[in-house]
TrEMBL record:
SUPFAM superfamilies linked: Nudix (SSF55811)
GO molecular function, one term: metal ion binding
Record keywords: Hydrolase, Magnesium, Manganese, Metal-binding
UniProt-listed CDD domains: NUDIX_CoAse_Nudt7
Record protein name field: Coenzyme A pyrophosphatase
Organism lineage: Bacteria, Bacillati, Bacillota, Bacilli, Bacillales
Amino acid sequence: MNLSNIITKLKDRKPSILGHEQFRKSAVLLPLIEKDDELHILFEVRSIKMRSQPGDICFPGGRIDKEDLGPKHAAIRETTEELGINAAAIKDVIPLDFMASDLGRIIYPFVGRITDYEQIVPNESEVEEVFTVPLSFFLKTTPEKYKVNFKVIPEADFPFDLIIGGENYNWQTHHIEEIFYKYEGRVIWGLTAKILTHFIELLGDE
């Protein structure tokens, strides 16, 4: 293969995330509702029957299926399934920044408006309850932040003889920052808090 062939093969290619084919892909919706003449954000409490993160506070969302037309479609579908509402009740769905992690996950968050929130009937198999928090609370509240450090532990058969430094190799360790919001006895943290903080930062000084 010569240089011309290489350029021809690659020049129209659109870059993506390396290895994205193996990543687990999910989509979530940050739901806005109008309640008591004020904007609120709606949250779910995951059912205690769930195998993954039971009782945690989250936004509606889940895995992107092959049948979904894309992340936006998946976010809307998951919201309708979890909240028992019609897709027509979900308006103005706008993408936020997507998130990719070393743990092999890509999360596509969206923000959208839910009308007729009084019609919500949570899916009991997935949702223990729903509640709302005034948007104004997050606009004026600084969340607590803590670091979680990671440690590198090579497997027993790791080929130290193939790297400079061997067993004394200077591994580059890193950490993640966990964010916590506390509201009336509830704690919002993890991925939900990160998406929420990103959304609040986009609003700026408004």
